[in-house]
UniProtKB/TrEMBL annotation:
One of its GO terms (biological process) is SOS response. GO terms for cellular component: bacterial nucleoid. One of its GO terms (molecular function) is ATP binding. PANTHER family: DNA REPAIR PROTEIN RECN. It comes from Adhaeribacter pallidiroseus. Gene3D superfamilies: P-loop containing nucleotide triphosphate hydrolases. Residues 151-229 form a coiled coil. This is DNA repair protein RecN. Residues 3-506 form the RecF/RecN/SMC N-terminal domain. Keywords: ATP-binding, Coiled coil, DNA damage, DNA repair, Nucleotide-binding. CDD domains: ABC_RecN (cd03241). Belongs to the RecN family. May be involved in recombinational repair of damaged DNA.
Amino acid sequence: MLVNLRIKNYALIEQLELQPSPLLNIITGETGAGKSIMLGAIGLLLGNRADTKVLFNTAEKCVVEGIFDISSYHLEDLFTQEDIDYDTQCILRREITPTGKSRAFINDTPVTLDALRTIGANLMDIHSQHDTLMLGDTTFQLNIVDLYAGNQNLKNQYQETYRQYKKLESDYKKLESQLAQAQKELDYNTFLLNELEEAKLQEEEQEELESLLKQLEHAEEIKLKLSQALQYLSESEFNVAVSLKDAAYLLNQVSAYSDHFQALKDRIDSCLIEINDIAAEVETAERKTEADPEKAEQTSERLTLIYNLQRKHQSRDNAELLQIQADLQQKVSSVLNLDEAISRTKKDMEAAYDQVTTLAGQLSESRQAVFTHFQEEIHSLLAELGMPNARIVFQHVTGTPTATGIDVISILFSANKGSAPQTLSKAASGGEFSRLMLCVKYLLADKTSLPTIIFDEIDTGISGEIAVKVGKMMQQMAKKHQLIAISHLPQMAAQGNAHYFVYKEDRADRTISRIRQLETEERIKEIATMIAGANPSKHAFQSARELLAL
């Protein structure tokens, strides 16, 4: 439950703080005093959007903070799911900076608005007049039935299975689309793949072939130059090898006079070994070099094939061509594998659909099972609220599975005896709508563990003894939930365990909203004023005391 609320720099609120009772809290005040403004601030704690227009002082940030005691609500798993540290005291805080930046915190940890909404939705429910209008929405009505029937676990299981089915259905359609497209491209891709595979490309082949072709095209020149080089190295009368031998012989003769001469002679011996080795390789190369026009033509043709494939596929080298070949192999193989994938996905999709229909049937049976009892309880509560002839009827049909199941329901309403039930938008007045919604909330209060419920003028359109009964009903709800109710009715105000008064205070430069908890005498005066106006009579004061049972 909410144990402390602090609002700073929001709209007409400069600074506001209150510690509501754990039972029924009533908030009263003149129209425009700031009651709805306070609800707007509380809405920020539930993740509602805001901008700099809400700032009381545009130079300072807005801060709304709620401290909740959640020790008895078993929300540990929810906090773990949202990766937020759990504590029996939960602090929700929202800040709006003058630049328009919004920040949210849970237990002083920065969180996203989605996380704030998820946690906040389990701590507080704000029922506004807009929610009363939502009672006419069929999806909202279905949610009411599920809450009353205790279908949350079954509904969650169904929705998870339905999501899995829709994903499989989407995957199946994508695979079929891919197959249709792939089949159009299969013949062309197969032709390209066969062409590349027949070429038997090798990654470094191009460079080797280009080098070989140069040698074959200049074979006679190469052979001549190699032969001339061999003459200089080892075959002419004054070749390099003979000269080195002579030099080595001379240095050997003086090597006894100096180690340096011996070292020079050893170096010449090393050079001689290298020259002889070079000469041998040159001789081998010269012997192997022969003009071969046929091999040159074959090499040229092979290179032409490679160049043509590179131009065709807009690639720079064989490495890119081989990657294209691998990609084509994947595309051709994928077509062959798509049939298997489609068959497997279809089988999984059909199995998931069977699960969906089974769970949808169970959900539908659970919903239909509570229709009669729900109607009877609503009729009894409406009778207590001065509508003895009011009736609701569930109009129900089943269809194909959707995200909410196979059920389509509509709550039909009749306020008077002999009137045929009609949709709520046609049959219910504002006051009837409010009373019906209060009855629904009253029934659902026992089905939920929501700590705090806020009612914004749910007593609209009622008065007199009915207002007293509405107050009694809310007192009953407050035994299990903390209630905060904004009201204009003295009968409602008298039922509260705590009474807060919202008022405007005029300053020299602007008007601000304030709130204070009323003491007994202040409360009597406020209720008397609600009964008789600005100058209540003694009778009004007496009526206020009677309502308060003082």
